[in-house]
């Protein structure tokens, strides 16, 4: 599956400019280069599969909790590839929604069961965060594509206003997720990459929209700031707690003055 995803993914990325999630599909369509995010994710999944087979990892209970999430994300990634290749908007919408659902479950599990090591976080948690970001970007792009093709204009506000509402929704939703645990930087960075690709296309490509381009750039900045602030806050509290524990230990070990 990983080989097919990488091999066909490269061809898909090169040819996707006119597709459902292509750069010209709607005001919220990112540059085609955004989907390169699948390649490091697939490579990490391969590494995680090998990592689980290490002797000291075979009894790790966390793999039982996260193994099915990683497998579900892999299957959905392959389904995403098939849906995009088949240019089926309805199927891609369903796959993207499923990716978001699995990603949210994964984030909840990460918050309850943090990784025991950096390797575990890089090979399991980070790819799940990027997969959630890909699902969010796909869901937004497909919905915008469908509404654009249908020439829908609810309340008569115009496509630009609704595109801005879409960006605000993504910003609020991702920020809420990133304010949990240690900021979920993999999700935040992947979303920032996606929003940057949207900003680039709206400022430099077609259809062009300065307001959407600037809005996407501002949203990317705010997501990065919120995730970084949360990571700094949690790490600062952890270091302070460690210093307090060390201070109490030194106080308990100091002999009493006579």
From TrEMBL:
Domain of life the protein comes from: Bacteria
Keywords: Membrane, Transmembrane, Transmembrane helix
Residue ranges with Basic and acidic residues bias: 234-245
Annotated segments matching region Disordered: 234-258
Transmembrane intervals: 35-54, 66-83, 89-107, 128-148, 154-178, 185-204, 210-229
Name of the protein this chain belongs to: Uncharacterized protein
Organism listed in the record: Arthrobacter gengyunqii
